[in-house]
Amino acid sequence: MDDEAVIEQLTEKQTELIEFLYVDYNGLTRGKVIPLASLKAKLADGIGLTKATLNVSERDTILPVADMTPIGELRLIGDAASAHVLPYMPQVATLMGDIYNLDKTPYASDPRTILKQVVKQLADAGFTVKIAYENEFELFTGDKNHREPAMPRVAFSTESMDFAYPFILKTINQLQQVGIMPNAYYPEGGIGQHELSMLPQDPVTAADNEVIYKRIIKNTAKDFDLYASFAPKPLVDSAGSGAHIHLSLWRGQEDAFFDADAPMQLSKTGQYFVGGVLKHIQGLLALTCPSANSYQRLAPGHWSSAYATYGKDNREAAVRIPSTAWGDPASSMNIELKASDATANPYLAFAGLLAAGLDGIQHQTQPGDYCDVDPATLSEAQRNEMGIHRLPQSLSQAVDAFVTDSLFHDVFGPQLIDAYAKIKREDDQYYSKLALEKIAALHRELY
Q: In this protein, which residues make up the domain named GS catalytic (predicted)?
């Protein structure tokens, strides 16, 4: 749909305000709002942003990074194809934006632009991508001064389903209004925890969907006097919430990850992709598990994938190879990155994951022996023999691996690497002085 058609459609729907949005390096969605009458001009000219716009911590601290200061300007160009009327506020439409320099060239440190570049690299290699987040979240009662898990019942129980159905049915209806197709729902393992997954899309659309998905969940929860949190560890003494990433590569109509005769039905292409992910996973976690709270979740024995390994339906491995559908195995093979949560910028997380997998394909990187047990039950000698390593145990460890991985320098460029590392290290230093309960509580309210 072109710009004129979008403007006409929004006018017919009596939309009054238009959001131009972007996601910062903290995974927080920000933007500016204009009246509908200005939309045509702003789609052409963009909305001004300071060059410091992405260079801020969770607490809006601006860090010292070259050419990311309050001096100078960028432009946020709205992507009309991403426009949707907010189902809970029909006078307002939202659209995601790409950041440009004043000379009309794409801004090199813009996450959405970088993801588009990685998708093009995969296309040049002959692949298209289907990808989706699988989000867990927790529902709470009370206010920010005192949160209690809503309906702390048994996982997968019908009692929990009955409690959540009014909220879930309204949520699904609103998601469908913005073109997001749900896949499955169930009460999860943590107290007050739920999961509502989405069907896969191309990477940019899937990342856009993650932004509006979380907004709809949070706003719908308010209608039922609930609070929804996507924090990885909103409570110290409960199961953490992941945002697992499922993806597959395709050559035309063929799932490139499927081979009926291969171990786990995972093709050579799929094995190489997994090999690339595991090769770069120490630094990749700075993108997919990018908060101090993330590392409260990534512990052995908690189904949160504390080890860099892979296996068939192994929910304690960083990369899980799910079983294929009985009725259509050839089109249902995918891989799941379990070491991932919703504090991530979805564009950066997808770009890093896809770039790592493509690097594995290009260099035919073998993933090593698969693991069919909980790695935590193996001795250290056994893990070493199998090439299984512990994932980073803190944000600072992940950031150190990220900045020393040459692949990520090639993908993201020196300015983003510098800004991202400084933001994450500043956050890690701030949270290192706080009690675990305080870290969980702050992230529970922020995400």
A: 111-447
